[in-house]
Amino acid sequence: MDLQTLKNIIEAILLSADKPLDVRHLETLFEADADRPSRDEIRQALAELQQDYEGRGTELKEISSGFRMQVRQDYAQWVGRLWEEKPARYSRALLETLVLIAYRQPITRGEIEEIRGVSVSTHIAKTLLEREWIRVLGHKDVPGKPAMYGTTKEFLDYFNLKTLNDLPPLSDIKDLDKLHPELALGDDVAEAANDEADQGENNQDLSTIEDERLTTESSGEISTDNQADSVNEEPVEQNIAENSPENTTDSMDEESFEDTVDAVQEASEA
């Protein structure tokens, strides 16, 4: 089989496939042919196809699960207008958690909370597990045996990555927020509400607490210190920039962490 014919066949297969295909899978599709191509010939055809698609609206991209034909990210906003539904948008709280897992895996929920300075709600963990972006890699050998989380192939595929080594270095995305000032994080409020519901099921409503505080204050039953404790509660989720320096890691400072979260947000909306 000549190379051009092989390229045409592989191109047709990848355009028709509903999932990425790796070289071994492609090789099995030629088993019934007398002049079936070798694995090296398939790789050569794929490499030339990638070159052929340079400078076009679509590209042949190798990701974790194999090769797939896709629209280039530069043109995603126009293609997205074909569908009425809006792309999924995720809160900063969820993205911060995902970034920490991606860059620091394996990592436990407690370690994430220590770095971020706030609790990781069960809603966030459930969402990431349901999307199959993270999985439990094992359990840490400490009291309580907490689960250690890591990313999955589905995570790599969704964010157009072949391996974790393709994650952008933190130094390369320092000024991403300046390049994309319009980046929206409109679900923060909704996410915070979910987090409050997860963590405060047995707590009184804040308005009720405030009413009780005012009533008690008027009767002189609590001290000024106790009054402050009852109303100056930390929000469940807050911007990572408000955290103290000791809550960051040696390999990821606050500015880099912010920019990395913004990069993940942009990729998820593409």
Structural notes for this entry:
The protein has two domains: 3-82, Orthogonal Bundle (Arc Repressor Mutant, subunit A), CATH 1.10.10; 92-188 and 238-269, Orthogonal Bundle (Arc Repressor Mutant, subunit A). Helices cover 47% and strands 9% of the residues. The protein is built from 13 helices and five strands. The protein has helices at 3-16, 23-28, 39-52, 76-79, 92-104, 109-116, 122-130, 153-158, 176-179, 188-199, 206-219, 224-231, 254-269; strands at residues 58-63, 66-71, 107-108, 134-139, 147-151. Strands 3-5-4 form a three-stranded antiparallel beta sheet. A hairpin with a 7-residue loop joins strand 4 and strand 5. Mean pLDDT is 74; it is low at 174-193 and 196-251.
CATH class of the largest domain: Mainly Alpha
Count of discrete alpha- or pi-helical segments spanning 4 or more residues:
13
User: If you compute it from the alpha carbons, what radius of gyration comes out, rounded to the nearest whole angstrom?
Assistant: 25 Å
Gross morphology is: elongated
Tell me about the largest β-sheet.
3 strands, antiparallel
Strands, count: 5
CATH architecture of the largest domain: Orthogonal Bundle
Helical content (DSSP H or I, runs of 4+): 40-55%
| Poorly predicted tracts of residues | 174-193, 196-251
Roughly what is the average pLDDT, rounded to an integer? 74
Widest β-sheet, arrangement of strands? 3-5-4
Order of helices and strands: HHHEEHHEHHEEHHHHHH
Gap between N and C termini = 38 Å
Within CATH, the superfamily of the largest domain carries the name: Winged helix-like DNA-binding domain superfamily/Winged helix DNA-binding domain
Share of residues in strands: 5-15%
> Which fold name is given in CATH as the topology of the largest domain?
Arc Repressor Mutant, subunit A
Coarse structural class: mainly alpha
The overall number of domains is 2
